[in-house]
Description:
Largest interface: A-B, 72 and 73 residues
Helix content of chain A: 55-70%
CATH architecture of the largest domain in chain A: Orthogonal Bundle
Distance between the termini of chain A: 47 Å
CATH topology of the largest domain in chain A: Tetracycline Repressor, domain 2
Shape of chain A: elongated
Strand content of chain A: under 5%
CATH superfamily of the largest domain in chain A: Tetracycline Repressor, domain 2
Number of helices of chain A: 10
Oligomer: homodimer
Number of strands of chain A: 0
Amino acid sequence: MSSIQPASDLTTRARIRDAAIEVFVREGFSASVRAVAAHAVVSPGLVIHHFASRAGLRAECDARVLELSRSRTDHVLGTDQNPSSTGDVGDAVTETLRSLAESGPLLVYITRLVTEGGESARTFVDHLVRDVETSMMSAVAAGTVRPSVDEPARARYLVAMSLGVLIIDLAMNPPPDPTDGAAILHEYVNRTMVPATEYATHGLLTGTSALDAVLAVHQGDPSGENGVD
Amino acid sequence: MSSIQPASDLTTRARIRDAAIEVFVREGFSASVRAVAAHAVVSPGLVIHHFASRAGLRAECDARVLELSRSRTDHVLGTDQNPSSTGDVGDAVTETLRSLAESGPLLVYITRLVTEGGESARTFVDHLVRDVETSMMSAVAAGTVRPSVDEPARARYLVAMSLGVLIIDLAMNPPPDPTDGAAILHEYVNRTMVPATEYATHGLLTGTSALDAVLAVHQGDPSGENGVD
DNA sequence: GTCTATATAATGATAGAC
DNA sequence: GTCTATCATTATATAGAC
């Protein structure tokens, strides 16, 4: 499946919105209203007529993408946690990316959204962090994942890692079709699976001196106010 | 030090270029020639006169940033490897980021450059990957870092991780002054030090079944052609 | 709802005076 | 080298016909 919905059976307004999402994925958020109109095969004026302004169109696209990603991850992660987990790195993140990839352009749209920052980005990331924290907690309880001295911070770090590595991978290996999330994720996993799993299993360092030093500071100063620079 | 060079003692051409770097850091690469001219306190025409086109100016900025980052990391990493390493996560990456942060706007410029992709981005990342691979090899020889089944892939992954986490951190926590690399890095380290060191020391997982499974595929198919999806 | 035509602003780039 | 003035293009957005 390469598009969000079949082009028919949608209001023109929805068709323009979906066309805009695809154009934003292909050309970036700097794409013009004209480019969107051309892709939706309508006049530029009609785009503005439906969304009042370019910013309005953009906001609607963001909202749509967040809504789609929300319902998809809710479905995948189920009522409690994911039962089909096979010990992958970072359950909730992996499952969320997989889920986003299934609906074509969502994956790249999200990476652009997150990179740009702003409120929509924070909404998405915060939600994902919460999911990851939950899935980590149950994985810790199940004994498959080590506990952390700071579970919320680890969840944040895991999300930043996963999204960040994906963003760099996309920048270094531009996909032939940015709207084909499945193919993108497939290549991405191929390129990163070995080092990612290795890192998740054993870490990098042989000793604990670095961690001991960091934890000493962290215990005495949990607010992180007096960090190392 | 918050700027690249004292504003005096530079040719106008160099002043415009440095002003452009700062404007690109503050407003993104979509900043106009006029905005650059205003910041350099010259006319828009003069900018074009010196750099022929907007693309020419941008290319010169990229080249300048790459040159600066190159000479800085060469200096920091020294003839062989970094002797002042204190067991931080990813020697060469950490030292490179620290070095970039010292010259004000470089840090954020690099993150924008890498995110955008393209040739300059690949040049920078490839060079950094090579540095990391070298520093990892000697850390492995010294016994402080575990060996990897695929050192080049691990080096790539470590670079993607470090830059990626920084990019997400910047997007989620926009710095008050994007040209103050030192402050940005300080905050970044404060937010990520604990989970990053924890992860680098112990990884995430308690068992090796995931790694075993991945390595089984990797051994039989080193090209990565037949990856898991 | 949808279009064409247009107003208005901003952009990159040029020409020529000094 | 540097400026002012201007052109050509493109952008968003509006007005009004159908």
